[in-house]
Specification:
Blueprint: E1 3-8, H1 16-24, E2 29-32, E3 41-45, E4 48-52, E5 65-68, E6 73-74, H2 76-88, E7 97-100, E8 104-105, H3 108-120, H4 132-140, H5 153-174, H6 181-195, E9 199-200, H7 202-211, E10 216-219, H8 244-250, E11 259-265, E12 268-270, H9 281-289, E13 303-305, E14 307-308, H10 309-319, E15 323-327, E16 337-346, E17 349-351, H11 358-363, E18 365-372, H12 389-402, E19 405-410, E20 418-420
Parallel strand pairs: 1-10, 1-11, 2-5, 2-10, 5-7, 6-8, 7-9, 11-15, 14-16, 15-19
Antiparallel strand pairs: 3-4, 12-13, 16-17, 16-18, 19-20
Helix pairs in contact: 3-4, 5-6
The protein binds guanosine-5'-diphosphate, 6-O-phosphoryl inosine monophosphate (IMO) and magnesium ion.
The site of 6-O-phosphoryl inosine monophosphate (IMO) has 24 residues, from helix 4.
Length: 421
Amino acid sequence: MMNTVLVGVQWGDEGKGKIIDFLTEVNDVVVRSQGGNNAGHTVEVGEKQYILHLIPSGILTKAKKCLIGNGTVVDPLSLVQEIEGLHERGIKTRGRLYLSDRAHLVMPYHRIADAGNEASKRVKIGTTKRGIGPTYQDKINRVGFRVHDLLDKDSFAGKLKARIREVNKIHKQNGWEALSAAKVNKSFMDAAELLRPYICDGIHLLHDFMDAKKRILFEGAQGTFLDIDYGTYPFVTSSNTTSGGSCTGAGIPPTSINTVYGVVKAYTTRVGEGPFPTEEDSLGDLLHGMGREFGATTGRARRCGWFDGVLARFSGRINGVDKLAITNIDGLDGLEEIKVCEYYKLGRKKLDYPPSNPEALKACKPIYTTFKGWKTSTSKAREWKDLPLKARQYLKVLSELSGSKIDIVSVGPKRQETFYV
Ligand code: GDP
Ligand code: IMO
Ligand code: MG
């Protein structure tokens, strides 16, 4: 078996979409196993830019197959739009894209609750307001709808009516808009007609692919520190974004995974609220000034900071990262000096791991090593030796801190601005 899992090492937006696109060439099937359309994965092919939200980035490579696995949460209306958007740009999806019938559905009331909670809660998370948390909440609470429900019109209409009656009571208490079961039913049945040909039992499909010796690539969404268990809780997303999530989210055994890629930015970014020890506004100003680091899903300016070796080390352990893909090295090209956090000080204690309590993490002081910048463009580099010596030294430090080897370096957003080491 040749199965590869790819995860984000930081807080998402590491460049996973771009690296998935690069790795798709040597794989046959690309699978999303968690999260939903909160993700925004940017891929640039030639002069064209694509932003994928729920459909695996492998869809941009002809003849490759893609599965939206059981662990994802699917907004059917948004998925239809995404499919139609690809068709308009000449990308075929029929016979290539599969949707697991076990995946949970994001319902309109999940989006309303997500936005409503953000507006009223004491602790704001800064979610993408795509209804992700409330959908997973209903899944765990065993009151969710799954993709297979879309295929049984009569039963869906009845269950929906009953659920919307319950939901509307809660909406009334909160002062949120009331929903019409008939309207939701109509829009969902329209979407179901379009999605029907894509719906399948994702478990059988994936195991048949594995039996046929196909190479499977699992496309992580979000990043390690947004993981519901290992992230900076409560400032996290509602799924397991770490490598183990691919097993439960797609129905494959851990023994079937051969390689774990960790995608890491040469600096750090985060969107939304929560602790960020190495945050550095001046770096953010510089990157935003270059038109970089705006969210692919919400357009929000990402918070920016120095590379955090403490987080990278922890992420390496949790995910079992054996290969690193380092992106956005070119973002640091113009800097006189570049800082890297090697450990934290919490009071008088030296820490080489992030504390679990977000208040403690917030109180951690990053201890930096400062490197001289290479002050030359790296974007034309096409192999390791093309990089300036100082950039190579810097990348080696990131690799040492992360505890794994560099396999891929990315020096720009385009496909060809990527090379193996
Ligand atoms: P993802 O969510 O991990 O797939 O990452 P996003 O697509 O949200 O954000 C990554 C951003 O960085 C996108 O705009 C990419 O086009 C861009 N990108 C990826 N790798 C590189 C790189 O090496 N250099 C530059 N300049 N941009 C990159
Ligand atoms: P990709 O796959 C960056 C963040 C949100 C918020 C928190 C919870 O593109 O890397 P949610 O809507 O999931 O309940 O929001 O998680 N977040 C992301 N940040 N990249 C993402 O995805 C994200 N998906 C969610 O900003 O802080
Ligand atoms: Mg993104």
